[in-house]
Design brief:
Blueprint lengths: L1 E4 L3 H14 L13 H12 L6 H15 L5 H15 L1 H4 L4 H26 L11 H20 E4 L3
């Protein structure tokens, strides 16, 4: 068997992450919405560092700011901080078991909430309610199935004849 790299999962997964971020949820479930774009970009920064770097993450953060209607540059800053930490520890994180990777991603998503809160506090913007601090836990629990799904889509197997 030869494994061939597919190029379509990267743009499709980013588009789906943006769409999932825009999907309307009931008010009760809104605080539990995972940061889909961060989860998808975390996968690509870890697994395909050559195609997804800090510049790409910054530009996708600006697209997300425009799509979600937030402060221009907020998601760019949050995503670049996350991607920088992932790149710094990429060699170690790639070889963690999936359960340990989930804990690390949960920590990064929690750090994302801290960065967002500090930014909102500094700019005098209203802070999110405390219930929004549950979203990193949901993201941490979604990491293993998302990782397995994207990793499976990243390569196709073709029989050698």
């Amino acid at each position: 068997m030869i494994r061939h790299r597919n190029h379509w999962p990267l743009p499709v997964s980013i588009l789906l992450a943006l769409l999932l971020g825009l999907l309307p949820l009931p008010e009760v479930l809104q605080p539990l919405r995972p940061y889909w774009l961060a989860l998808v970009l975390a996968f690509w920064v870890l697994e395909d560092n050559a195609r997804v770097g800090l510049g790409t993450v910054f530009l996708l953060g600006l697209v997300a700011d425009l799509a979600f209607g937030g402060l221009l540059g907020e998601q760019s800053l949050r995503l670049v901080v996350m991607a920088f930490i992932l790149q710094r520890f990429r060699a170690q994180l790639r070889f963690f078991p999936l359960a340990q990777q989930s804990l690390a991603i949960g920590g990064l998503l929690l750090n994302d909430r801290v960065v967002s809160s500090v930014l909102h506090l500094t700019l005098g913007e209203p802070l999110l309610p405390w219930t929004y601090w549950w979203a990193p836990l949901v993201g941490m629990l979604l990491w293993p199935p998302l990782f397995v799904l994207l990793d499976g889509l990243r390569f196709s197997r073709r029989a050698r004849r």
